[in-house]
Specification:
Length: 230
Amino acid sequence: MEWLGVERRRLGTGLLAFGLVGMILAGIIAIGLLAGAVAARNLDDRISADQARLSAALTQISGSITKLSSTTQNASATLHTTGALIGQAGSVIDDLAALSDELSTNLNFSILGQQPLAGASGRFKTFADTLRQFQGSTGTLQQNLETNADDLGSLVTEIDQVNDLVTKLGQQVDAFDNAGEIVRLMVGGIFLGALLTTWLAIAAAFCAWAGWRLRRIGTAEAAAAGTTPG
């Protein structure tokens, strides 16, 4: 016998297979929803705890950055001061070189055609030349220190900008209070998913039952007609 143009046993087989697949899918979805419900348990408390830890870490980082900025600024000031002192030392060395030249000239005198202090005069001249070479090195060192001090000053500005970003991020973390709302949305989604899964399971079970009944009826009709059921 046919029903809706399809042999009942074949129609029952299709409905039974469709229903069983639907029930399997419903079971898989139910397992996923159960796992989600377990994961969402005390989620708001865990989010709040993580939020507190993150806020404390950002506060500690901000404090460390503040100390780094202060240390870098002090280092920049120290380099400026050191450069200025080296510049002053260079001026003193230049004056000392001029004094050595003057002594070298004054000691280079003659008495009765003799120069009794010619050796000392030459040594003062050599000392003056050495001092002028050293004075050139102090000038280069002063310039390098000033450059490094300026670079550290720029670095202080960048560090302060990073500290401002970290501070704002910490404030945003402290102001975040939507954990409960997020959890409620998740629970609502799980509940709606559970309703949909229940509906799918009922529909699949009905299809499986209807297919089973059609197969039995088809088998019985085939037996009564003396034919082999397909």
